[in-house]
Each structure stands twice: as structure tokens, then as C-alpha cells.
Amino acid sequence: MTLALTVTPFDPVAATPGARLAVGRLLAECYAYAYPEDPPMLPEREALSLTHVTPDEASRHFVVWDGPEGERALGWARLDYGLRENLHAAHARLLVHPDHRRRGLGRALAAALKAAARQEGRRLVTFGTTSKAPAGEAFARTLGAEAALPMRQSRLDLGAVPDTLLDAWTARPDADPYRLHLWERLPDDFLTRAADLMMVMNTAPRGDLDVEDWTITPEMVRAWESMIEEAGERCFFLAAEDTRSGQLAGYTEVLWSPERAALVYQGATAVRPEARGQGLGKWLKAAMLRHVRAHCPGARWVRTNNANENAAMLGINVALGFAPWASFTEWQVRLDG
């Protein structure tokens, strides 16, 4: 029993493949418990994801083992933190196997995360919970966390979107100065422009989250592309270019895995403030749904998160047919001295 409650640091890169796979199984089993109707996560893919770190960021992992390292993981936690920006903050994930909850593992892992955050000079830790796993919200409150950004998780039935709506949203005026580009890997001549465009997400609502704007570099984008490819996923990036200037004015992106074909994850959608009011957001979303229908065999559902206060994007999604599916909350814990 004592061994099972011992939190130990874990280095996914230096660990044996067996130890990584043990943690990957834990992640997959926790996901299946929270989302039993979803296509299952693959433990091998989850194990590989443990080694992924964005440039200019670092991470620390902790595991509660049942027996020797690599035999079976009962709990896992990860702390990610930037090395150049938001130096006051870190983001955490924490999972305990459903069969081993209410034994103090979560509290022990949370204590390890707090200690690591303090060691790295952080005074704020953020993390997320979903209503699909109600125990997470209850646990957040025991930590004294603040619900900083409430979000709605929505789901779209791809087959239920009327073609007439997509026709209307993709119709553009004569002599339209905008044109669409679709990429899975960004061309070199658009890479810097795309990284700059992605930073428009800094204008998205953050609620009460005590975090600052972030910078996205071409190196980060290339690293993300490699991670996505290594994970067996496909990311479709659709951008609207203003042909008068060559500037990218808006984009939307989705993630899809042939191994979990039924489910598509809608990522960011953003339009530059000066280009809003011209229907670019609707055009991008409708054109992407058409692409998904044509190029993601087996896709049935699209899932997305939106801040409750983001009325503009919620309005577009509701008009497309996205329906409430769950709630998601970004929490923050302020660490004392």
C-alpha cells in the first residue's frame, strides 16, 4: 500500500518503452471511463505523446506505480511551463485510474505538481475539467481552485448539416479579394504568415485566467506538425488570404485520426479584427466541413470547445447545428509563497 501511494518523478524520454506504455494504458483507460461512447484512445499513441514538448517549453511528469516502475501506473500528472513567456504560470494534467480513486493518489500527485511549480518559480497553475468526469470538478474545489473560464463543449452531427446552409456560407461576392488555401503541412513561403495569424487567438476570451499573450513561432508550428504526424493524426489547416496584401486574414483547423475515424476535433477558428464582418468565419467553417465530409472517411461527429462568453463563435457554431454536449472549465490555483 505504501508503494502504491508513492509519487515518483518520471522522464518519458529516458524511460523504457514498457514504462511509457504503462502510462499510456492509464491515459487510455481514464479516457474510456470518462467518454465511453467515443472511439477508444490507443495506449501506444498516448505513450508516444508523453515525449512531445513544444519548443520553448518544458515539462515534468510524476507517476504512482503499482509495483516496480513500468509494471502498472495507477496515477499520472504532468506540469507544462513556458521558458520565455508566462513565466509566472504552468499548466497541469492529473489522472488517477477509476479503480483506485479515493485513496489519496490525486492529492499526492497534486502536492507533487505544486512543489514542482514552486521550484520552477511559478505562482499560478491552470488545469481543465469536464462535466463528463464530475469527480474532476469536485477535486478542483478541494484544491481551492478558481473556476476562471467556463466553456461549452459542443457536438455536430456531420450528416445533419444542410447543404443549402453550406452553399450560402461559401458563396462569395464577385471580385472577392480573398481566396482559400488548404494545407496539412504549411508551405515554407506561408509559414511565417501562418504563425503570425495563429496569434490572433490572443484576442479570444480568457475569462478570469491570469495569463498573458503568447507568441507562436515558425519553429513551434513545424514542431506541432511533426508531433501530429508522429501521432498518426491529420491536421487540416484552412486559411483565407487577402490577395491585395498577401496577408492571411483568418483560419480554421481540425484534427482527425483514421484510427478513431468517427470523431473530428475542431481546433481554433480566428479572423483578424480588421477583417471581421465580411463572412470569413462562416466561409472558413463551411468550407472545412465540406472538406471533412469528402476526405475523412467514417467521420460522423465534430467536437469543439467555446468560451461561454464568446458569443460570436458560439453563434456560428449554433447556426451550423452544434449542440451542447458537455461543459469544460479552465481552473487556476494561486500558489502561496
Automatic annotation (TrEMBL):
<feature type="domain" description="N-acetyltransferase">
    <location>
        <begin position="199"/>
        <end position="337"/>
    </location>
</feature>
<dbReference type="Pfam" id="PF00583">
    <property type="entry name" value="Acetyltransf_1"/>
</dbReference>
<feature type="domain" description="N-acetyltransferase">
    <location>
        <begin position="21"/>
        <end position="168"/>
    </location>
</feature>
<keyword id="KW-0808">Transferase</keyword>
<dbReference type="InterPro" id="IPR016181">
    <property type="entry name" value="Acyl_CoA_acyltransferase"/>
</dbReference>
<dbReference type="InterPro" id="IPR000182">
    <property type="entry name" value="GNAT_dom"/>
</dbReference>
<protein>
    <submittedName>
        <fullName>Mycothiol acetyltransferase</fullName>
    </submittedName>
</protein>
<dbReference type="InterPro" id="IPR050832">
    <property type="entry name" value="Bact_Acetyltransf"/>
</dbReference>
<keyword id="KW-0012">Acyltransferase</keyword>
